[in-house]
Specification:
Blueprint (H helix, E strand, L loop, with lengths): L1 H32 L16 H16 L12 H25 L15 H10 L10 H9 L21 H10 L7 E3 L4 E3 L1
Antiparallel strand pairs: 1-2
Helix pairs in contact: 1-2, 1-3
């Protein structure tokens, strides 16, 4: 029974990776058709498009030969066959069913919108003002998980934690992050109590 589910999931994942490679190849074809240089992209991978062709071929071949043992003499088993090849039959039904129900069409490489929201993203990047990073104390997280810090001591309703002086959470933050509270200060560099 477990091997049937493993066969089903393996076939679906192999099809998934094969279609991912095909999607990359179609995207690359649209880039070429619209004269968009690969040098204009922030990232490029090596061995492309060859790696995508090899990946697509290998994953689809593996999906088809995943249940080959049922075709050996005397090894025919209907459940094994169904769980090995069910996803291969289901994929075209789902794909064309989606196309029919949603009335979507396959676009030509020249028609694909590759610039969609690039203007908004570039404007956001130009106007971005970075906020200083917040230090998250690993001890605080571990203490919370282990129960040393009560959930009621923290208010997670906004981005930062609002601390109540004298609570378990504020004591942990005082001790590990070096905040001053009620006249007690811990130097986080030397971990020595200074009062």
């Amino acid at each position: 029974m477990l091997s049937w589910f493993v066969n089903l999931i393996t076939a679906s994942q192999l099809i998934n990776y094969g279609i991912t490679c095909a999607t990359f190849l179609f995207w690359r074809r649209a880039l070429r058709a619209q004269n968009i240089s690969l040098d204009s992209l922030p990232y490029k991978s090596i061995w492309q498009p060859g790696a995508a062709y090899v990946g697509m071929t290998c994953t689809l071949v593996m999906a088809f030969v995943g249940g080959y043992t049922v075709f050996l003499p005397g090894q025919w088993d209907v459940p094994t066959f169904l769980f090995s090849y069910f996803m291969i039959g289901l994929f075209p039904i789902l794909y064309f069913g989606w196309k029919l129900v949603k009335r979507s069409k396959v676009r030509k490489a020249e028609e694909v919108d590759l610039k969609g929201e690039v203007g908004e993203i570039e404007e956001y990047t130009r106007n971005y003002v970075p906020t200083p990073p917040r230090y998250v104390c690993p001890f605080l997280v571990v203490s919370w998980v282990l129960g040393y810090v009560r959930m009621s001591d923290a208010d997670f309703s906004d981005i930062g934690m609002r601390l109540t002086s004298g609570s378990t959470l504020s004591l942990v933050v005082e001790c590990w992050l070096g905040f001053r509270c009620e006249g007690t200060y811990i130097d986080p560099k030397i971990d020595v109590l200074i009062s």
